[in-house]
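Table 4 source record.
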Amino acid sequence: MAEKPYILIIEDDPYILKMYELKLGMEGYEVKTAVNGKIGVEKVGEKKPDLILLDILMPEMDGFEVLEHLKGDPDTKNLPVLVLSNLGQEDHINKVMSFGVQGFIVKSQYTPSQVVDAIKGVIKKK
C-alpha cells in the first residue's frame, strides 16, 4: 500500500491548526503540526513533508524566516509550500511568492474545503 502523503502545518493559531489537522486527517493525509516556525523547521529536518502549509505571522520564527531557511538549504529548497495567512497586502504576497511557493491563500477569503482542494492540487502535481 502506498504511503499517505505527509503534510506539515506550521501555524500558531490553535483553532486553525486543529481544524486543518482534523480535516486533512479525514482526507487520508498524514499530518504533523508545529506552533511556530522554529519547531516547523526542526520537524522538516526529522522527515521531509510532501507539502508545508505555512502561516506568516508567528512567534519565534515567522513564515518569511522559515521560507529563507528552507529555500536556502539544498535539501529542502524544492519542498512545496502553500502559504496560509491573514496578510493580504500585495507587498507581502509578492515577497512570499518570490520564494517560489506553490500559492498564497488569504485565510479570510477561503473555506477550509477550498484550502484542502488547493493542497490536493499541489500534491497531485508533485
